[in-house]
Design a protein that fits this description.
Length: 223
Amino acid sequence: MASTRLPDPEPRAIVAPVISVDDHLIEPPDLFDGRMPAGLAARAPRVLERDDGDEYWLFEGREYPNVGLNAVVGRPREEWSMEPARFDQMRPGCFDIDARVADMDIAGIWASLCFPSLVAGFCGAVFSSAADPELGLACTRAWNRWHLEVWAGTHPDRIIPLQLPWLADVTLAAAACRLASSPSSNATCCCNNCTRPAAASRSASGGSSAGGLSSNIFHSSRA
């Protein structure tokens, strides 16, 4: 897939603070490093590369590609596509927080609320529907820890902290919502059909599977 980087525009003056509350991030390959229980670390989502150079996340035998359309910022429109994208084909601000804040400065955005990508799924539904609930819960907690420590913690005045709920257990999901109203976080997200929290994916053997999670979600946040 072609990957042309357009030149950066001149930074825009901030006439009034802009807070963007429906942005997304691309999880970096090292997100789960050091954040999983020792007994589960080897089974955490990991980035692999195919013979043709495409990169993808592998989790419980299923492949989750970095869909190209998730990371087309800074590229000419004729190169936009759904084809998988490598990390080196993306603008670094998609997955690197320092580069993201630099991009926000160019765009005149003061603060941003960022939601997950395909490896976590809408509202963390990929993890909530894991075949091994213990593994899925550990991945949810690792994602949340990374978001607080790195994505929001590096520039706390620029990124609004977000926590993913554990949709497979209403008590744990409620705990995530309570954390989202604490000083350490400001937002959570939830699907409109928590009874079937599965996400579409492609199996490692090339087959397809799809769960019943609707793509319609609501975001709960406080500024």
